[in-house]
Write a structure and sequence with these properties.
The structure is a single chain. This protein is mostly helical and about 725 residues long. About 65% of the residues lie in helices and about 5% in strands. α8 runs parallel beside α25. Pfam families: Dpy19.
Amino acid sequence: MTTIRQRRVGKGTEAAEDQPSEETNVKPDGKIPSDCTGGKLWNILSITIGGIVAISLGLLTSVYVATLHENDLWFSNIKEVEREISFRTECGLYYSYYKQMIQAASIQQGLHGLVYDNKTESVRTINILERMNVYQEVFLSILYRILPIQQYLEPVYFYIYTLFGLQAVYVIALYVTSWLLSGTWLSGLLAACWYITNRVDTTRVEFTIPLRENWALPFFAVQIAAITYLLRTHLQPVQERLTLMAVFIATFLFSLTWQFNQFMMLIQALALFILDCLDMLPTAKVTWLYIIQISGLLLVCVLQFFNSMILGSLLISFNASVLIARTIQKNLKKGGLLNRLGKLLLHVLVVLCLTLLINKFIKKILNLESDEHIFKFLKAKFGFGATRDFDANLYLCEEAFGLLPLNTFSRLSDTLLFYVYVFVLFLMAVAAVIVAFRNLSGSKQVKLMEKMGECTITLKPDAAYSLVHTVLFGCLALSTMRMKYLWTSHMCVFASFGLCSTEVWKLLLKCVHLYTSQRAQVIKYSIPIITLLYISYKFWPGIMDELSELREFYDPDTVELMNWIKSSTPNTAVFAGSMQLLAGVKLCTGRTLTNHPHYEDKDLRERTKQIYQIYAKRSPEDVHGILRSFGTDYVILEDSICYERRHSRGCRLRDLLDVANGHIMDGLGENEPDLKPSLYPRFCEEIKRNLPSYTTHFTRVFQNKTFHVYKLAKHK
């Protein structure tokens, strides 16, 4: 098992608003510039300072996470095999394609090796570019080959520094989004500080560097910033076109770098749909965003050799359904309250039915089953019947796919983030309900008041989108812990925007009859500054201690295994074992695998279940036959899986296999009545006894405290 141990000493502003507002060009002290020239100079100075602060914070975050990574692993000092082992599970698989491209004789040969790959899945040739989102590795490897940096920078450092550099883009995008929403760069500063001080819950880039989300989320943040700007009123046509282009590019890059992009953008599309139905966003801009999502995803589909999982995505079906339904119901936003509600209900039903029909039709035509495990998992997770499906239970038993732990909120509360977030969320939700009701009422008097600027409660389109976005992604995070990083980063933006927003304080002060323009301005700046001082005072010493703590990578058993494989097995050898370990085997040794952690393929999922019979109660003849059917030469057994204690009974891998095979689980506890005792003992335990029935088929060739490697007999 990989561990981290203590290191031994040895080797040595104010943004210019497009919409008119009574607070335009207001200085932090509440004074208004005396003339137009003074106001312009103030805005230029403020934007310049805000921009410098944004870039500085982004770069500091990048250096911060890079330093943490170095301090945790002593990355600069450990051997290459140890560096590669530190890219655990699927991270190692993705990085292996970067390494493969770097080591190829030419770029063309490297691309050919990815398009016609026969080492990732034995006895099969697959197209890696079609199956996986690895274009970023391809691009980065080509860039490394053509730039004159080989003498100064190792390939692994070029790779990890790029990912850490993207963290700078991420923080700057969050900063800009908050700045655009509130009108002051002080809000962006607070958002960035909250992101950094809540690092445990906002990012995991320093220890899962090649993970797809670490590539994708910075582009998602850029897309949200661009959408926030797009939703402002009074944009010039040129500004709108450029912003739409920025949204498209960010959407495309986000979609290209993460296989779960379609589900994240589906939630985003739902947010747009809700706000459009409630007349809180301009319909024309929402339509453009629907089209951008579809076109970005289809372009990725083309680049991924018409990946059927993309064509069968719910996002494409949903967006197409919304556009079709809108052409059918042309007078959706006319009439009184009851009339509008009836039309909206019918509209929602039409969109839902069309989405299901279109999606069902596409999947039927394409014979698509690649994503069925996700829907099985969701069905079981939300209580729509128990399941014995191995793949669904594999997800259900992982902590990352469970509910968000309650201690997350205590950590977020320590920095005041959660308290401020709930406060702002409550005020904004109340305002949104009032505005939505007013919009649906469709009163001519209300519309006249809106034009005259006499409505007490208003909600700008960008703020409305941010509200629904954070609510929907909050629901996702609460239900699935792994997705919390999509919520917590936006939580920083939303809370800082509310704390620095004139509209929020104006609404609150008017409710208690204490509103004056000067009082709102004083609070708008003083509360965030006090919050920043508190965060700095409380967390700066902890950050310094964290940066001074030195540890090193330590996993001698895995290092020994990888070195043995490289030195004692032929290059063409095929290895079977757990998905997580085999990803490391491919990266460190280049040997052929039977299975791997990229689970978005039905045949691979079935193959993995069959390979995992090495941990089930099966006869040696059965296991040997299964492994040889996939061309296996060597099988690696792990004690940490065979004698697993990390999960409770019912969630251990061996329990999942027993239930799927119809066998009674080990240990004390209840079993379902139709489960039967197995005729055979557990394979991974019994093989170690070296009984003749096992040694006929398997010969142990390597052993240490963690791993046991057996060579398969090739008799027919």
